[in-house]
Write a structure and sequence with these properties.
Rossmann fold, globular
């Protein structure tokens, strides 16, 4: 499965690519370096094979790539907002793929 999706995350439309050979695999959320630097293009060119063992979510965080919006304000780009977005994306993935938190 390879899929590009857009999800409403904390009031902002954000994009991600999902790749896996088996959706029963554990989910791996790949976090790139932050706003302005999407890495999906590099991941496509330099395949790492992660999608064989995981359901990989290449999330383009708020302010980068598919999740960039030119009308974003600096107030929307705080560390607290990025952490909140990460938690929301994690919960979206858990629900979508029926996964529980492993302790």
């Amino acid at each position: 499965m390879t899929e590009k999706v857009f999800v409403e995350i904390n009031g902002s439309k954000q994009g991600m690519f999902l790749q896996t050979e088996n959706t029963e695999n554990p989910v791996l959320l790949y976090l790139h370096g932050g706003p302005g630097g999407p890495e999906m293009a590099f991941a496509e060119k330099y395949q790492m094979g992660l999608n064989k063992q995981f359901t990989v979510c290449w999330w383009e965080q708020r302010g980068s790539g598919l999740s960039y919006h030119r009308n974003m304000t600096p107030e929307e780009m705080t560390i607290e907002q990025m952490v909140s977005d990460t938690i929301a994306v994690t919960n979206y993935l858990r629900k979508r793929f029926g996964k529980e938190i492993q302790s």
